[in-house]
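wait is this the right file?? whatever heres the structure
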């Protein structure tokens, strides 16, 4: 257990670089060995975190896999549509994996990764960082303590936030389901995983409804051009105006524009004139939903619901048990309530629960979940607490994919 865990990274975009920075902060536990990406500045950003020459660089997945097994664990942080091919090739080489969610663009391919990993005795952890946040870790501990009694039902909610929806799911990489994965999978696989993880069971059946209602051509302001940069008469009142990337929304460019930190306003404006992120959100070619709900029953009888909407911000959760109801999340906290609290049925009193956030400099991203996941690598992949072989988190993926099928077919899907 004292040996360093060696780690390679395939895909050095925003997620890959985030993991890399955290990995090097655990220098006593982990060692980066390789970085692969088509874009030289991205892989250079990873290799520069260590002594020159210690991290091998590769300019393609082909050259990376041709080099054989270079680490104990491979982080796959490429685009959604590439996950399946990269995961299968990595498993064939004997890697344990941290695979960014979703594992693949279809349920069948997720299940194939699971089967392949079991056959080759490989562990595949998904990038479900919410499990590792102080907030959801506390929720899990409270449930396991028995304080709320037996769980009867769970309700979760995710407000994607309007500009985030526009940036990622209207203009961005996840705008078209057939080129990435459905919205309920791409964004809410975290939440589906949380429901199965906290409920302690897989899905039995699910129904779902939702649509793309707002981000459509008929809702565009009168006279709005195809691009914000072409001069829009409604720009001053539009919360999606691409010129916001020059001011308060500038940080979003870190995910899509290489070298944005060193680019002046004129350079960013040129980027917006030619890239997808300069388009009017009402004149895009996206097909992702901007709101969706699903209701499900787990195999142990727990019922659960989830609401995803573009038109709110933050996650919330309510867990209803026989002894108490547990409630919390960002909507509660922003309204002045405790971040997490219990209402005991017998006494009717409210108990505020303390969440121990860290002040560590690396404690950033997904409210601490990025740090928490990297901190857990040693236990996930080594020692007596290590994961079993296969795809950990397949139950949550199955729930999300079946929810999308239920939405499209307007039927109740059963497992």
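ok assuming it is, sequence goes like this
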């Amino acid at each position: 257990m004292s040996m360093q865990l060696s780690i390679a990274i395939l895909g050095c975009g925003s997620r890959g670089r985030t993991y890399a920075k955290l990995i090097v902060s655990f220098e006593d536990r982990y060692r980066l060995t390789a970085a692969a990406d088509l874009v030289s500045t991205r892989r250079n950003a990873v290799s520069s975190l260590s002594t020159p020459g210690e991290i091998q660089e590769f300019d393609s997945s082909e050259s990376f896999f041709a080099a054989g097994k270079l680490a104990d664990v491979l982080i796959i942080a490429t685009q959604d549509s590439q996950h399946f091919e990269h995961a299968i090739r990595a498993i064939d080489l004997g890697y344990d994996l941290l695979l960014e969610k979703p594992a693949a663009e279809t349920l069948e391919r997720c299940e194939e990764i699971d089967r392949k990993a079991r056959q080759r005795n490989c562990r595949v952890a998904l990038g479900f960082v919410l499990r590792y946040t102080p907030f959801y870790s506390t929720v899990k501990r409270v449930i396991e303590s028995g304080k709320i009694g037996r769980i009867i039902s769970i309700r979760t909610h995710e407000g994607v936030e309007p500009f985030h929806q526009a940036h990622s799911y209207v203009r961005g990489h996840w705008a078209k389901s057939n080129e990435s994965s459905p919205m309920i999978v791409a964004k809410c696989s975290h939440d589906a995983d949380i429901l199965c993880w906290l409920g302690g069971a897989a899905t039995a059946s699910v129904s779902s409804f939702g649509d793309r209602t707002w981000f459509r051509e008929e809702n565009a302001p009168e006279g709005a051009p195809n691009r914000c940069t072409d001069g829009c008469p409604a720009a001053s009142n539009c919360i999606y105006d691409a010129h916001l990337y020059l001011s308060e929304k500038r940080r979003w460019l870190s995910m899509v524009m290489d070298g944005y930190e060193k680019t002046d306003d004129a350079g960013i404006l040129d980027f917006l004139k030619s890239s997808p992120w300069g388009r009017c959100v009402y004149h895009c070619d996206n097909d992702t939903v901007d709101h969706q709900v699903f209701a499900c029953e787990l195999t142990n009888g727990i019922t659960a619901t989830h609401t995803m909407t573009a038109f709110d911000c933050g996650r919330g959760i309510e867990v209803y048990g026989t002894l108490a109801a547990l409630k919390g999340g960002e909507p509660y906290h922003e309204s002045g309530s405790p971040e997490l609290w219990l209402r005991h049925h017998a006494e009717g009193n409210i108990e505020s629960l303390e969440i121990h956030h860290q002040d560590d400099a690396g404690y950033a991203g997904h409210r601490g979940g990025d740090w928490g996941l990297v901190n857990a690598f040693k236990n996930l992949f080594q020692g007596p607490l290590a994961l079993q072989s296969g795809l950990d988190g397949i139950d949550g993926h199955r729930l999300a994919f079946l929810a999308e099928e239920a939405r499209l077919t307007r039927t109740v899907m059963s497992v």
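The CA atoms of residues 149 and 322 lie 5 Å apart. so i think its the right one actually
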